[in-house]
Structures are given as C-alpha cells and as structure tokens.
Write a structure and sequence with these properties.
This protein has two domains: 10-80, Multidrug-efflux Transporter Regulator, Chain: A, Domain 2 (Orthogonal Bundle); 94-124. The protein has five helices and three strands; from the N terminus they run βααββααα. The chain has helices at 12-19, 23-32, 50-65, 70-93, 97-117, and strands at residues 10-11, 39-40, 46-48. β2 (39-40) and β3 (46-48) form a beta hairpin. α4 (70-93) packs antiparallel against α5. The longest helix has 24 residues, at 70-93.
Length: 124
C-alpha cells in the first residue's frame, strides 16, 4: 500500500493491491460479510477504514490460507465476536495465574455448553 497514515482511509485499489486480491472479489465479499461496510461516497467510490482492512485480511486468511468456505468463515467470524473476544480480554486483563485459570475453566464450560447445543458428543 502507499505511504499513508495508519488510520487513513484506503481506496478499493489500494486494499486490493495490499491483499493481492482483485477488486471484484472485495466487492463480492461485501455482499457475503455483513460486518464489512466501507464508506461509499458519491458515485459509489469505496473507502475502507483500517478496521475494514483488518477484517479483509482476516477473511482472506480464513478463505485462502485456512481453507474455510465462505459460510464457514461467516460462522467463524460471527462466533468470534462474542465469547472468544470477551475471554481473551479477561485473560489479558488478569493479574494472576489463578484468575487466568478460572477464566479458562469458564471458557471450557461455555464451549462444552455450546457443543451440547450443537448436538455434538462431549470429548474427554
């Protein structure tokens, strides 16, 4: 990408070049990932915020590097915004090892409940 401030908005061409993905793919992803909402100016010109670029990098990695389908990436990203991020924040904010262990145990319980709600058997 060109030399701009880290918080500057980017055009679709700049983002496409940065991600090494054609612009039409970025426009397609906008239709599939509802959290991806670049600003649109008059004439439909798109401007991507730094958060949009980070999300696009994550989507690219899920689809191209980790082998997710679009539907799988949608589920992964929507699930990540809830329990996982709050648990990560709790672990980062923990002052002691016992707090971190407690957080991990709560996460294990939450994941177990999620597994049950999805109809999957418990793992040992």
């Amino acid at each position: 990408m060109t030399q701009k401030s880290s918080d500057a908005f980017r055009t679709i061409s700049e983002v496409a070049e940065h991600l090494d993905i054609p612009p039409h793919v970025l426009r397609f992803w906008e239709t599939k990932f509802s959290t991806l909402r670049p600003l649109k100016r008059s004439g439909g010109r798109r401007y991507y915020r730094p958060d949009d670029v980070a999300l696009l990098e994550r989507i690219r990695d899920l689809l191209y590097k980790e082998g997710f389908t679009i539907k799988g990436a949608q589920k992964h990203l929507s699930g990540r915004s809830g329990v996982a991020e709050s648990l990560e924040a709790n672990v980062r904010g923990s002052d002691s090892l016992s707090e971190a262990i407690s957080t991990i145990e709560r996460a294990r319980g939450a994941l177990s409940a999620l597994r049950k709600s999805l109809g999957k058997p418990e793992q040992a």
